[in-house]
Amino acid sequence: MRALTLIGDRKLELRDAPPAPPPAAGEVQVRVKAVALNHLDLWGFRGMAFAKRQLPLVVGVEASGEIAAVGQGTDFKAGQPVVMYGGLTCGVCKACREGRDNLCENIGGIMGFHVDGFARDLVNMPARLVVPVPEGVSLRDASCAPIAFATVEHMLFDNAKLQPGETVLVQAGGSGIGTVAIKMAKAIGCTVITTVGDDAKAEKAKALGADHVINYKTERFETLTRKLTNKKGVDVVFEHVGGEGFNGSLLVLKRGGRLVTCGSTAGPTVQFNLMQLFQQQYKIFGSFGATLANIRTSLAKMAEGLTPVIDLEVPLAEFERGLARIESRQVFGKVVVLF
Ligand SMILES: [Zn+2]
User: Fold this and answer.
1) DSSP code of 102?
2) Given CB 3.0 to 4.6 Å as the disulfide criterion, which of 19, 35, 162, 296 pairs with 60?
3) How far away, in angstroms, is 316 Cα from ligand 1 center?
4) For residue 51, what pLDDT is reported?
5) pLDDT digits over 191-228, tens only?
């Protein structure tokens, strides 16, 4: 079987791997059909000094597929469409028992990043980390559920507790998760302001339903956001960029506003004014990944028509072209690798 393997920083090789063994009790074997790309893939591909991992490593952190074989004691059926949870949680710690899978106390690594991932023809998974795909959702779209959709679901609803009618600023609205955030916030009747890096993306973000789109390269998003909200500011900021824009993200919050972040693609270290934080009673939420429940909710939303924006589809052999598309920041929506 094929396995796309990272053998060094920025060095991928499509290898012929030995076939996966039959699934053990409590496991299922999944024939992978689509891998969706994320910034996490890019971090892994470039090589990260702080990530504990050993190369060679099969890449791919987010995927869908079909059940190829079932082990004893599982409820899945051959041919059933599924997605996989890529965090190797223990299933028994307090966090796991309470459904906070992303905060597992004994996590064995993230597949495709710390340990072998999904960019291979067959993968054996613990059945408890496999989620059925509802009828009417394509495997291409479903591949965007475990990370892109579920992460946004966790950020906006579990952490920031976004309510219908609120105003939200979505930073980098053209990114994979940015496009999802725009659609999810609009779906519950929020006013959405979003930032993008060029005018072509601005058109696309408008078409997605964003009420106001700011090209942050030509306009100051802080000034414009305050103007658009009659100087009140927004209820929630959806952050995943960090770097120099982070302070602006805090500044555009209304008093008591919430900022939720899951990323730092423009830089992990920021400085901000502590007095501003407590005087305005801002709330800052870190948000890491998602829970299995977030994945189920995401798939249910897809079944109701809230589908991902697909920027580019590539075959497995062109995985690297997909990564380059994300790295170039030309992307609008998700890049999906089809098997
Ligand atoms: Zn656990």
Assistant:
1) G
2) 35
3) 32
4) 73
5) 999 999 999 999 999 999 999 999 999 999 999 999 99
Going by C-alpha positions, the residue among 217, 216, 201 that lies closest to residue 169 is 216
What distance in angstroms lies between residue 109's CA and the mean position of ligand 1's atoms? Answer: 11
User: How far apart are the CA of 272 and the centre of ligand 1, in A?
Assistant: 34
Ligand 1 centroid–CA 88 distance in Å is 9
- 266 Cα: distance to centroid of ligand 1 (angstroms): 31
**Whole-angstrom distance, CA of residue 22 vs CA of residue 31:** 12
Query: Which of these, 179, 116, 187, 123, lies nearest to 152 by C-alpha position?
Result: 179
Measured in angstroms, how far is the CA atom of residue 178 from the centroid of ligand 1? 29
The answer to whether the beta carbons of residues 289 and 38 sit under 8 Å apart is no
Ligand 1 centroid, distance to 110 Cα (angstroms)? 13
Distance (Å, rounded) from C-alpha 44 to C-alpha 54?
Answer: 11
- Number of residues that this document lists for the chain: 339
Gap from CA of 289 to ligand 1 centroid (Å): 14
Helices of type H across 213-291: 221-228, 246-251, 274-279
Compute the distance between CA of residue 87 and CA of residue 40 in angstroms, rounded to an integer: 13
Q: CA–CA separation, 142 vs 310, rounded Å?
A: 12
Greatest alpha-carbon pair distance for the chain in Å reads 62
Taken in order 127, 131, 338, 31, is the CA torsion positive or negative? positive
Helix (H) or strand (E) holding 333: none
Output the CA–CA distances (angstroms, integers) from residue 174 to 178, 215, 240, 266, in the order listed. 6, 11, 12, 15
Separation of 106 CA from ligand 1 center, angstroms? Answer: 5
Residue 49: its pLDDT value, please?
A: 66
Q: Closest Cα partner for 119 from 57, 66, 70, 67?
A: 57
Ramachandran angles phi, psi of 88, nearest 5°: -80, 80
Residue 155 CB burial class (10 angstroms; 0-12, 13-18, ≥19):
buried
